[in-house]
Amino acid sequence: QVHLVQSGGEVKKPGASVKVSCKASGYNFTDYSISWVRQAPGQGLEWMGWISGYTGNTNYLQKIQGRVTMTTDTSTSTAYMEVRSLRSDDTAVYFCARGHYLDYWGQGTLVTVSS
Amino acid sequence: EIVLTQSPGTLSLSPGERATLSCRASQSVNSNYLAWYQQKPGQAPRLLIYGASSRATGIPDRFSGSGSGTDFTLTISRLEPEDFAVYYCQQYSSPSRTFGQGTKVEIK
Q: What rounded mean pLDDT belongs to chain A?
């Protein structure tokens, strides 16, 4: 069965960076892309970008391009998302999800940005 | 960027009633690459519908999707208690994916 397991919650100060991991199992990692989606407290879903599990090609939400980097390690079937220059409005639950229509999701990682 | 607008913002219905949720796109969604998700508090979203009308694995047949181009609909034929949640549409037609703002289905 397919599972996506994310790393634990983080508390960061403004200006810092955070790197969230998403370990996949139960399928061939290179057959699917991984998308990242975030949800600020009480708000809706915001797509952040995706990375091809096969080529490593990426596509990012324009408003965060330059602050975000998505990578994969195919040897461990793990995807990573790093967000730099964190601001208070980056406080959110960050989800990874499989594919172009998102059929499997990680459990979410709460990133809190606070001084 | 394709902007998705969902309506209504909130739908107040009773168990057993029919729910009709709308998702309108600012430009045509090619190949009907439109998905619907259900989210309950404290949980990750769950895929219900992909390709505008195909039910995901394990999704009950009371959930159905329809539409094409710029207008899409999610219908829940008879609401069960576990269906009260927030529903999002998402397009995966363009390289930059987008979500609608969500429709909350609440108990009347």
A: 97
Task: Centre a 10 Å sphere on the Cβ of residue A99 and count the other Cβ atoms it contains.
Answer: 19
Could you tell me if B41 lies within 8 Å of chain A, comparing CB atoms?
Answer: no
Q: Do A61 and B95 touch (CB under 8 A)?
A: no
The shortest C-alpha distance from B103 to chain A (Å) reads: 10
Which residue is closest to B89 within chain A, CA to CA? A45
**Is A45–B37 a contact, with Cβ atoms under 8 angstroms apart?**
yes
Count of all residues that appear for chain B in the document? 108
pLDDT value of position B31: 86
**CB-based contact, B85 to chain A, within 8 Å:** no
Find out whether the peptide bond into B8 is cis, omega within 30 degrees of 0.
Answer: yes
Q: Which residue of A has its CA nearest to B86?
A: A44
pLDDT tens digits, residue range B9-38? Answer: 999 999 999 999 999 999 999 889 999 999
| Cα–Cα distance, B64 to B53 (Å, whole number) | 6
**Contact (CB, 8 A) for A48 and A38:** yes
Give first-to-last CA distance, chain A, whole Å: 40
In angstroms, the first-to-last Cα distance of chain B is 35
Cβ-based neighbours of B75, under 8 Å, separated by 6 or more: B18, B19, B20, B21, B63, B64, B65, B66
